Amino acid sequence: MRLVRGRVFGVSRAELLRWAAGVFFLWVIVVGGCRERELARTTPQMGIKPEFWVRVLLLDDVKTCVLKVSSSLAILDVEANRTVPMYRGGQVGVPTAVEISAGKITIGGRIFSGGEVIIWPDAPHIFNVNGDDYRGKLKLILNSDGSSFDAVNLVPVEPYLAGVVGAEMPDYWEPSALRAQAIAARTYCLYIKKRFGSKRGWDVKRTAANQVYLGVKAESAQTWKAINQTHGEVLVCRQSGGTEEIFPTYYSSTCGGHTEDSKHVFGDSFEPLVGVRCPYCRDVAKPSFFFWPTAQFDKTEVTGRLLEKYPKLKASGEITNITSVKQSSYGDFSRLTLVKLVGSAGKSNFLRAEDLRLTIDPSGNRLKSTICQIINIDDKWAFLAGRGYGHGVGMCQCGAQGMARKGKTTNEILSYYYPGSKIIRVYRDE
What we know:
globular, single chain, about 425 residues, seven-stranded mixed beta sheet, 3 domains, 11 helices, alpha+beta, about 25% helix, six-stranded antiparallel beta sheet
């Protein structure tokens, strides 16, 4: 380059150096951003006892998915009461199609004769399905008609929780709230597995139907710390026969000022699942969660959804009236617990208010709770004066954060929302 009075083509050396530094910084960002995020933490508990593995339903009744594994792996074809290793290795990190061909599961064009296939990646024991990373193993189950399959994540409890805690609660919340969430989620998972798992090929769904599970992308240093600090801890309460056992530790986003008795919402009854006053969530919850706007639904649409989910209602005809039969009153607000549905044929039926809510709005994002009033407006049902977000049973997550902000410990939070419960440790594997 031609140097002219300390400048290169009219640019000072200092300016040139700043420009070069900027280019280098941009190169680092671009090149670094193109690399796959390194998963430094290997999956723990891979050798734990079978009763502490969880089967998470990732995909239900699908015909295809895309699999990618960034390590060597083993694929097992599970046939009549025996497991046979099929092959090891393959194209590492390459997206591979999983499909149905002639009534059989195929992976990358290779046909597996049995109705179940287990994919077991080597360390760090992580696989990717449809763009999302999960820990543990992947089980593919051919459905009875041979036209589709289910994809189930086999994962130990602690790494499962790593995909739940950060999905259910912001990871920047107070450590004591995160620890409370970890214990509640661990207990709920193990209870549902014990209660329903033996009757189906999976234990929990990855959605809010059980508890939200997002796999590796939900993980963070804060959530892993909360999980490790509560390793193996669950809540128990005294039950029939005098034994202390785990119970369904329900929780929801925002109770709106008072949690609800489980028997009014889910029909079960456990000592810790009684409603408690909650003065803590109002200052934490989003304004649109604590007080939510009027939600309106077309009457024909409401009737259609109710008849589809509850065929017994068809004899009643079109739903012409919905009225509150039972409610829990908490001073300046009430939570609907039982409603009466009146049909055009003159017949009446009763339905839990929470079942009505999730039938009308399965997402729960518009009709956020049953703390509301139901109004008949022309061709629509209007739900107004809404308050809170979720079913309201058990721990109020925003309330837990509110308590944590006031210096309450994890034990204090859990004993407040689950009165009569206590924490025990069910394993000490690591």
